[in-house]
Amino acid sequence: MNKWSLMCLSCVPFVSSVNAMDQFIDPQDGMLDVSSWVLDNAVGFMPVPIIITDPAVGVGGGAALLFFHESDKRKQLREENPDEVVGLPPSVTAVAAAATANGTWLTGAFHFGSWQEDTWRYQGGLFYGSFNLKFYEFDQPFDFNIDGLYFMQDIDYRIAGSNWFVGAKYSILSSKSTFDIGNILPGIDPIDYDMNDGSVELKVTYDSRDTIFTPNDGLKAKVGTSFHNQSFGGDVDYHKTRLQANYFAPVTSDLVIGLRGDYQTVSEDAPYYARPFINMRGVPAMRYQGDDMALVEFEARFDITPRWSLVGFTGTGKAVEEGQSVSEADYRSMVGGGFRYLIARQLNMRAGVDVAKGPEEWAYYITVGHAWQL
């Protein structure tokens, strides 16, 4: 082998490294961007760090890997219009694991699929974990652990090319709950019980958002009722109805506002974990539960540059107990802010950090996409 061959071979790692780094630079503005890596690379994935500071479970962390899969139609549209965000969503597969200081942990896999030019939308997941939380009854906290396996299958069908979808979802949770009431009644052993909770949900959805990741415009609204009973593999009988809406509007070229509404109601005999709770940044999971729950949130995002943004948000909600009037229930509010970076321009996906102050304490969140999921 002559010296020129040796020189060429010695350059291969460097050239490969340069080509690999090029996939993380957007040729449009020369900024860091993962669009090419996750969409053009057969093994491309997006690692997402998970930092948990939810007051309900304590400080912790983990990681998720997101794998993106494009349809031939979406890839064609993207290559024909490299400076535009294609409206057709890609399919996404994710695997994740996380744990916190109080012993809570979770692992699982999830898939979102979009087929036939977004006529069909599918979601499926399998998760296993153990959660150490507090259950509040008459404002008195009870420590408990719930561990188990959760499986779900979800399908939506677009009606005649419109923004309307009809769909159904099946899920089953096989769990074991253990309540420690020793802090209330010293000397009493923990109480535990096993339960299977199977359900079928019927739903109608409207979705006019410009992207599923970080919308700048459009509305997604959904109404659905889930029926939980022994016919679907469960041990309990109850039903739950939920109305949700996320609305986004560009006020100027640099300012996008969002409004979120969520209402839930549950029938009698629902297990403790199925009762609606106020779910907002800054509020611990299951801290404020009731038989009925309603909340509203407002968010504004200001784009300092095409890549960097600041966000501010606030919200309030009520959880109404059985026998309690709406006026008797207290408002639970939060306020916060954060920043975003446009990490994948061709997906219009922004990522960043939020800080929120709830009724009792502060919390911090890493956000990929939008904080409001529906």
From TrEMBL:
Protein name: Outer membrane protein assembly factor
Any one annotated GO CC term: outer membrane
Keyword Signal attached: yes
Keywords: Membrane, Signal
Coiled coil: none
Source species of the chain: Vibrio gelatinilyticus
Subcellular location as annotated: Membrane
Principal location listed in the UniProt entry: membrane
UniProt signal peptide: 1-20
